[in-house]
Description:
This protein is of the alpha/beta class. The protein is 40% helix and 9% strand. The protein is built from 16 helices and 10 strands.
Amino acid sequence: MNLERITEKLNILADAAKYDVSCASSGSKRKNENKGLGNASNGICHSYTEDGRCVSLLKILLTNHCIFDCAYCVSRKSNDIKRAAFTVQEVVDLTINFYRRNYIEGLFLSSGIFKDADTTMERLVQVAKKLRTEHKFNGYIHLKSIPGASDELMREAGLYADRLSVNLEMPTEEGLKLLAPDKDRKDMIQPMDFLRNEIIQRAEEKKLFKKAPMFAPAGQSTQVIVGATAIEDDRAILHSANHFYKNFKLKRVYYSGYVPVLADNRLPALNTAVPMVRENRLYQADWLMRFYGFRVNEIVNNDQPHLDLDIDPKLSWALRNMQIFPVDINKADLQVILRVPGIGLLSAQKIVSARKFNRLNWEHIKKLGVAVNRARYFITCNSNAYERRDLTGTRIKQFILAESQSKYLKNKPDQLSLF
């Protein structure tokens, strides 16, 4: 192995992989029962970059060569950058050597598309297969599925990877046609649809046969680019995410603010990066849809197509629906309590359990983990403290912003440049 050349490749292909944010690793349980390497029980270690992005410790591309010319991609074929490619064995050796040095606990592997989708996907599958079968590697493996790859390769990938993900890239078909006219949305949907059906089928087999092989135990996810076009507002992005959650059983949708790295009249100017806070608000809205019972039209609508960057989506919804509040914390249903700003999922469940034994006051609520500085404007309890019911939504917003210590709200920084 030429160490100098491998190091050069690693620098190029690890740097190219930083634009892919969908690297979370929760959901897999792959026990080490054969005296192999690794044990993916609670996911893998993560590293956080300066701009807040969460990345796995070995996150690389197989190659940054690509046959496509997507306007938003730094690896597009017309971009004059240094190119490199790993062999299958080089990726395997790097993973094993880094693992043995305790640098990593898993692998996140993506790739530019060279020659065609099947050829690229076959190489990715070979990496995972070698790690699992030859080296008995039980660590976490996340493979990026290549749009347009055959069902046979997707099926084989699911047998060796913990999670598979197909990047939608643009939230809407219109955006994809504008910035990546060579790509077809159907090529992205087809493998996602196949994986959904295969995951459901394998889960049923697992119920019947204890030793049935695992298939992508951490499920599938996707990533969309935010802010690359003006035609895709937050409403369109969240409607797209909601569609894929409901119809493709995704574990996660990741939102990646577009980082201007290329000059193109179809793209935002080079000095107009998407604010990091916009990504943060989309993740908060996504959380409300998945765990708090909110519908997309309650969060964003025709009159308000963009999320408020000053305050989180739940608080924004509450201020637009003041007629519902205040609610009595000792009587309200769980679903109502979940909609109160400052009360999280676990805190709401604790409230419902605790009030069976005692009427709750503010001290009780604080101990249950409620952010009282927000919740006090929207609830009543077994106490008269904090009761100021003559405030308008605008005044409440002013009070909360004045008290906020959030790093996102204090200075509202732009997303940092990666260069």
